[in-house]
Amino acid sequence: MEHNKSLLARLASGEVILGDGSYIMTLEKRGYATAGQWTPEAAAEHPQAVEQLAVEFARAGADITQTFTFWCHEDALPKGCKFSCDEINQAACDIAKKVSGSKGTIMAGGITQTGIFDKTKANKNKIQAELRSALEILVKNDIELIICEYFRNILEMEWAIEVALEYGLPVAATMCMGPGGDESGMAVGECAVRMARAGATLVGVNCLFDPFVCLDVIKSMKVALDAFELSPYLMAQPLGYRCPDGGSFGWVEIPEFPFAVEPRQITRFEARKWAREAFKLGVRYIGGCCGFEPYHIRAMAEELADVRGSLPEASDKSDHDLAIHKELESKLSRYANKGDMSFWMNQKPCTGRPLSTPFCCQPAPATVNKAILN
Q: What distances in angstroms separate CA 66 from CA 77, 89, 138, 261, one per listed residue?
């Protein structure tokens, strides 16, 4: 969908904005990022790989092209990295600007928690200086939206929002937390209220927890925001892997993280279901994080085509209405039910392993979230 007016104007008109999806996890699988470090030097080392992924998301229907600047901190970069954070951030901006220009998407710049926040002796000036250093480069490159994402503590998030507001751009704030609240135990609703009062235009959640757990989190946020008569736009970019047994740190605590998570990946139809439920809940910026591949974003765009008004470019190669499979079903018995959307939307996929591990196999699992039933 080509953008010819600002993000805020589009949201105000009632448009549903689709975010993009997984960068760091997808690039790790493709051989351009390192598990355990999760840093974005690929933007400078292999810009063509990052650009290709950004193009795939745009073709799939994403309205946003976000800079690949996740976890870009000098002390986090791998030993021997030939590029500085400033150089990586600039390379990420070059890629996002190119794709945004060619695909008509909104360019967003992302910053994350610093990794140096210590709630017992946090240095606000030091943390804000690091965030400001990253933002200076992003803003210089004409981003249209600042996304403060992957923050686990509401206080550090408030400090990030304070810095982001210095640049006069819309600010989105998403925390990586489940129903139990932030890392300090601050309730979900309280976090939402504090993000809104700090000045964020969009508030919500991203990563760590799957779409159906995130729906519960957003519901709690909405209740609190309504109670305090606050009305930021709701935003959610959840994890693309089912982990109702994830504990307080979500999928990071499951035994399969990070090298064997594939059997937990959501299907394209679960992505459709997530998008519809998020829309019904009032979320107007709907995207994905780790595990959300371009085909998931395409499925979401196809699901919401009735409210967005069109299908994405990549749907030219998609049997989105199952017309092809309806015809196959009429001719071949092995295609029974394959042309029925309800068959796919209600399917509970098998892992294919004779003795598949039970869904919860942690040594000391947290109470499983009711989202397992969705």
A: 20, 12, 11, 24
Q: Which class for 97: exposed (0-12), middle (13-18), buried (19 or more C-beta within 10 A)?
A: middle
Closest CA to 154 of 123, 129, 126, 190: 190
Flag whether the pTM goes above 0.70: yes
* End-to-end C-alpha distance for the chain, whole angstroms: 30
pLDDT per residue as tens digits for the range 76-125: 999 999 999 999 999 999 999 999 999 999 999 999 999 889 866 789 99
Report the distance separating Cα 221 and Cα 211, nearest Å.
Answer: 15
Task: Please state at what angle helix 154-164 crosses helix 188-198, rounded to 10 degrees.
Answer: 20
On the question of pLDDT at 366 being above 70, the answer is: no
Q: How many residues does the chain have?
A: 374
| Predicted confidence (pLDDT) per residue in 180-190, tens digit | 999 999 999 99
pLDDT of residue 226: 98
* DSSP at 241: B
Residue 46 neighbours by CB under 8 Å, 6+ apart:
32
What is d(CA 35, CA 359) in angstroms, rounded to the nearest whole number? 23
Q: Give 34-51 pLDDT, tens digit per residue.
A: 999 999 999 999 999 999
Output the six-digit token pair for 276: 């519809």
Q: Identify the helix (H) or strand (E) that includes residue 342.
A: helix 341-345
List, as one string, the DSSP characters of 17-50: EE----SHHHHHHTTSS-TTT---THHHH-HHHH
For β-strands 106-112 and 233-237, DSSP reports them as unpaired
Residue type (1 letter), 199 = G
The two tokens of residue 114 are 């610093």
